[in-house]
Amino acid sequence: MAIQAQLYSENLGFSLGGSQEWVDNGCVGFNGSCFNLQQHQQQYMQQLQSQQEQIQSQRNYQNFFLDNSLMGSTLKNSPNYGSSHSLASQFDNQRQEIDQFITLQSERLRLVLQEQRKQQLAALMRKVESKALALLRQKDEEIAKATNRAMELEDFLRKLEMENQAWQRVAKENEAKVMSLNHTIEQIKEKACGIFSEDAESCCDDNMGNREEGTGENRRGGGGEGEEHEEDSTSNMVCRGCNSRNSCVLLLPCRHFCSCKACEGFFDHCPVCQTEKKGWIEARIF
User: How would you class 25 by CB atoms within 10 Å of its CB: exposed for 0-12, middle for 13-18, buried for 19 or more?
Assistant: First the structure.
């Protein structure tokens, strides 16, 4: 019984001490990485093998000690073959008890180490899962931000397209307005040129008629009236603005020949009939 108590205390202390050391080493590996966990598993197998070797060496030592003690007690105390046979059977019983005890302790050690390994793996999985969840949440937030940014950019692009289309419409409208104005200006120019040509023709016809009438009257009236008419025509040829240069500008639409080219810009109305000036024609008289 003393031998069993000693073996039980030694094996139990050894198993608990080894398991505690393996737990500490496992925690270190857990805080390090999964590679450290594999290293600690290898250390655990080495420790288990060393424990088995120590148990086997203790068993061999105890068997050797029991064999020597039994042989000595047999030689000293047993006078016959029956007593030696009883001692041999007692030795076999003790050996079987020791074997059973060692087997039981080995099974207990295996169960304890297996439970510790399960706990460490569960703790490792919990920690890895928590880190994975944190990373997944971070990635989800990044994806949400990227999605919002993409939606904002799409809205901005749609606004730019709408503004571009609006500016294109405005440009087309302005271009149409410019073309319409150019066409209107061309029509006005054509009409003005036609009016100027008609006015010039009518003015020339009137002047020719007046000259013919004046010539006939001069012929009928005699020489004194001819001289007065020549003086009136000479005075009519003088510019009404400066009264020094000859008139060379025909004002329209009244068709009065009463201004020189230098004074034409100062007249808004005809100085003869006060009609509003709408145009003028320069006449070259030789």
Answer: middle
**Chain center to CA of 1:** 81
Residue 123: partners with Cβ closer than 8 Å, 6 or more residues away: 30
Distance (Å, whole) CA 191 – CA 193:
5
Secondary structure E strands in the chain: 249-252, 256-259, 279-282
CA-CA distance, 12 to 101, in Å (whole number)? 11
- Nearest residue to 36 (alpha-carbon basis) of 44, 134, 57: 44
Rounded to whole angstroms, the Cα distance separating 182 from 188 reads 10
Q: CATH for 236-286?
A: 3.30.40.10
User: The tokens 């020189």 sit on which residue?
Assistant: 260
Rg, the chain, Cα only: 67
- Where do the structural domains in the chain lie, given as residue ranges? 2-150, 236-286
214 burial type by CB count under 10 A (0-12 exposed, 13-18 middle, 19+ buried): middle
- Could you read off the pLDDT of 168-177 as tens digits, one per residue? 999 999 988 8
pTM above 0.70, yes or no: no
Q: What are the C-alpha distances in Å from 82 to residues 67, 68, 70, 88, 166?
A: 18, 19, 14, 10, 124
